[in-house]
Each structure stands twice: as structure tokens, then as C-alpha cells.
Amino acid sequence: MVLTPPAIIYDATVNVAMPIQSYQNFLQTASRILLDANSAHRHSAVIIINLEGLPDLDGILGYTEVDEILGKLIQQTHDALNAADIAGPSGRHQICCLLSDLLTTNHAILAAHKIMRVFTQTHRFNHRRVSLLPRIGVALNTSQKDDLRTLMSNASTALHHAKRSRESIRLYDENEKDSLLSSMDIWSELDRAIDTGELQLVYQPQLWIDTGKIRSAEALLRWNHPSRGFIPPDKLIHAAEGTELMTKLTLWVFNTALRQCQEYRKTGLDTGVSINLSAGDLNDAELVELIEQAVNIWNIPPGEIMIELTETAIMEDQSNSLETLHALKNIGFRLAMDDFGTGYSSMERLLLLPLDEIKIDKTFVTDMLSRPAHERIVSSMISIGHQLNLDIIAEGVENLTTYRHLRTLRCDAVQGFFVGNGMAMPELIKFGLRLKADEDAVFR
Ligand code: C2E
Ligand code: MG
Ligand code: MG
Fold first, then answer.
1. Are 269 and 213 contacting, i.e. CB atoms less than 8 angstroms apart?
2. CATH 3.20.20.450 segments of the chain
3. CA–centroid distance, residue 382 to ligand 1 (Å)
């Protein structure tokens, strides 16, 4: 890749700042320094810094100004490092550093933290204030044999994991390479699968426990891959998270679920649909607007749409998630905290969230009759939820005895294999009509 405007690269071996025209130039200088470090058995490491705010600035300030900013940031990175270290561009919005004389490998992590401190300050460029979101991947040359390309590839893998798990700094872990490769494979095919109609939604009914009537149906993703077979939804969500594909996937889910919900409602069934959002969706600034557009297209009252977010997703990034939750609530959606009990909600925070419903995780519900501790947890969650004026739904209800016991505990609604597994929309319509005609006495 050729970088047009000059960024600065510092060759510490000659202690002279040289303008660099290309990424190639960085590779050449860094390879030479690394060779020397390896033959002298010195510890070294590569650090890659990705700057999430910079691509947006391309459109606002133009390429020339952004390249100038990148050049200044490289200089600041260099200033934060030791004299023997070099920094240069490794992409339009990325900076790469080679640390070639580390006393111990821990020093690479210390250096990464130092760089992070530089980047998390608000920067001033040409009288403008610029805030950037840096993420850092670090790869250590523990064997003192690795070449530059291996170290850069390892640092990129670490960076990819940092983005996905929304950590600021991530150290390369050899064991993660395989899982990343397989999720990359899925990732590359998922884009095609969305466009070619290979993905489907099934709907799992949720019932009101006092009347046995259908309350909502949860849309669950299904991907039957032509050669790999069934790919579990959590695995494919994991592959898409942190990438642009996640927005595309979520919008596909929304549009499909709303279109099919419209079919369902045309038959005279008046319930809505529950849709899962992922942790990454909560940080996607444009998503709320796109979702609102989808709702307007399909003309489903937003109050009939329940958005499910896992407890961990809601708690993960507190500032952004709260803002997004309020934006969704303002449109009129109802909000559910999914998998409740598996995260770590504080009661104080529960009070702050604009929730309508809590879904008790199936790990407590499925075996609650054989495990008294789980039964006590379920019972407490129901009373806490009611104290907070929330509806409580139990997931993972697999038999009639559990269903009936939840009724005595005053749980509001249930979902699980006992009521029905995920089904295609035509089946759900039949199921809904049967319940409406009061044909399934077992649920009453
Ligand atoms: P979830 O939202 O908690 O969905 C409930 C999961 O529990 C589903 O697994 C469902 O098939 C399973 N389940 C339902 N009843 C029972 C039961 O009685 N016993 C047991 N043992 N399991 C039951 P599934 O379909 O594999 O989905 C797993 C997770 O993947 C979902 O958990 C949700 O977090 C995620 N997911 C699924 N579809 C989507 C989607 O469209 N978008 C997003 N972001 N996440 C999705
Ligand atoms: Mg769910
Ligand atoms: Mg759940």
C-alpha cells in the first residue's frame, strides 16, 4: 500500500528523523532492525495501533488533512517510546511500532499503555479538537526468531480480538489464531449468505402463563450452510461482531422479522415479535436510525416489538449502551434484559435502565425442580423484577411441572421446548391460531 503524504519514521539506529513515503519503507527499516535484534538475542515486540475515529475524519476533513494528522500521531507515538524503537504507518489509519531492545517482554505492555495514554487525550490539529478511539494489538518475539511479517500478523490478530472484545490493549495469544481463522471463514461466507437468502429466522413462541395465550415470538437466526451444516447463531454472531457485517446482519434480521410479523398479523393474530440485538449493536451509532426506518417500512407498531439484549451486553459498555437503550425506548420499542442471572447487574443500575422485561436465563429454569438453589434464585428474581415493575419471563421451560411451578411463583410468561421450539412463520401462524381457538388446554 502506498501512503502519499509524508509521515515521519524515526530510524533510531542513526538517530535521524526521515520522511517516509510508503509502508514499504517502514517494512524495510523495521526488518533490518529486527534482524539485528534477533541475532543479538534481544527481546523485541510489534505493536499495532488502530485509530477508530480516523476513517470518519476522511469524509469531514479530507485525505490530506487526515494524513497530516496521522503523521503527527506517529511523531507523538515515537516520543512516547524509547530511543531504539521505531514507529511508522501500516495502513491509512494504523500505526505500527517495532520495539527492539526490551529488557523484559513486560516492557512491551508498559509501552502499549504509554501509547494508549497519548492517544486517549483530545488532540488539537489546525485549531480542531480531535478525539480518537485507539485499540492496540501487541505481539512479542519470545523466540527471538520471528520475522517482521509474522510479528505484524500476530499483532493484527491481537488487534482483531481487541476490537471484537472492545478491549483497548490485547496481547497476542497463539491459541486464539485457530478460533480466529474459523470465524474469519464464517465471516467471509456470511456476507454472501445474507445476500443469497441462505439465512432464515425461526420463531419461538412465548406464552402468558395465566391465560396460556401467545404473547410474542422470539426471532432466532438459523444458518444451514451448504457444506458445513448447521452453524449455531451465537457462533455466527461472534464472527460478525465488531465488523461492518454485524450492522448488515442485524438489519437483515429486523427487516425479515418485521416482514414476517406483518404476515402473521394479517391472519388476525395481534401479537408482535421479539428480536435479539448483540453487544456490538449497542455501540453502532447509525443502527437506531436504520431500525426506525425498517419499522416505518413494515408498519408494525413499535410497542409490539420487544428488543432483547443480554445482561452482559447491557453492562459491558455502560455509557453507549445506556444512550442506545434510551434512543430505542424513545422510538417506542419495548426492551428486555435477556439471559438475566448470567451477568452482573447491580440493583442500582437495573433501576436506571429503561426496561420492560427480564428474561430469566435457562440455566436456572431448566433444572429448577431438581436443584433447590436454582428454584430459590428463580423465585427471588421474580420478586425483584416485580418490585421494579418489570414483566418476568422464564426461558428454558422444558416440561409441564416446571410450567405449573412457575405459575405458582407468579412468573408472568414462559418460553421453552415445552411450549414449542423455534418454528418457521407458517407453523407459528398455525400454532397461534390453534391457541386463539383455545385448542391447547395444556397451557391453561
Ligand atoms: P437467546 O436469545 O437466549 O435465545 C434462546 C436460546 O435458547 C435459543 O438458542 C433457543 O433455541 C434456546 N432454547 C429455547 N428454549 C429452550 C429450552 O427449553 N431448553 C433449552 N436448553 N434451550 C432452549 P439458539 O437459537 O441457539 O440461540 C442462541 C443465542 O444466539 C440466542 O440466545 C441469542 O443470544 C443469539 N441469537 C439468536 N438469534 C439472534 C439474532 O438474530 N441476533 C442476535 N444478535 N443474536 C441472536
Ligand atoms: Mg433472546
Ligand atoms: Mg436468553
1. no
2. 183-436
3. 21
Q: Which residues line ligand 1 (CB under 6 A)?
A: 204, 219-221, 232-234, 237, 253, 276-278, 308, 338-339, 362, 366, 395-398, 416-417, 422
How far, in Å, CA of 75 to CA of 29, rounded?
Answer: 16
Among 404, 391, 440, 392, smallest CA distance to 420 is for 440
Residue type, 272: G
- Give the residue from 122, 386, 425 showing the smallest Cα distance to 265: 425
Rounded to the nearest whole angstrom, what is the distance from the C-alpha of residue 239 to the centroid of ligand 2?
18
The pTM is what? 0.69
**Amino acid identity for residue 127 in this structure:** H
Residue nearest to atom 19 of ligand 1 (CA): 396
CATH of 183-436, one of 3.20.20.450, 2.40.128.120, 3.30.565.10, 3.50.50.60: 3.20.20.450
CA-nearest of 242, 22, 48 to 153 is 48
**Helices 244-266, 233-240: inter-axial angle, 10-degree rounding:** 140
Task: Give the number of other Cβ atoms within 10 Å of residue 50's Cβ.
Answer: 21
- Quote the CA–CA distance of 159 and 166 in Å, as a whole number: 10
Residue 243's contacts (CB-CB under 8 Å, 6 or more residues apart) are 187
Q: Give nearest CA residue, ligand 1 atom 25.
A: 220
Q: Please, what's the b/e burial string for 271-303 (b: 16 or more CB within 10 A of its CB; e: otherwise)? A: bbbbbbbbbbbbbbeebbeebbebbeebebebe
Q: Give ranges for CATH 3.30.70.270 in the chain.
A: 8-172
What confidence score (pLDDT) does residue 22 get? 63
- Which of 299, 281, 387 lies closest to 338, judged by CA? 281
The CATH number assigned to the domain with range 8-172 reads 3.30.70.270
DSSP assignment letter at 207: E
Strands 214-225 and 199-208: antiparallel
**Nearest alpha-carbon partner for 321 in 353, 347, 295:** 353
Q: For residue 48, what are the contacts with CB-CB under 8 A and spacing of at least 6?
A: 90, 94, 95, 96, 97, 136, 137, 152, 155, 156, 158, 159
Contact (Cβ atoms closer than 8 angstroms) between residue 193 and residue 222: no
List of the chain residues with pLDDT < 70:
1-22, 177-184, 316-319, 439-440
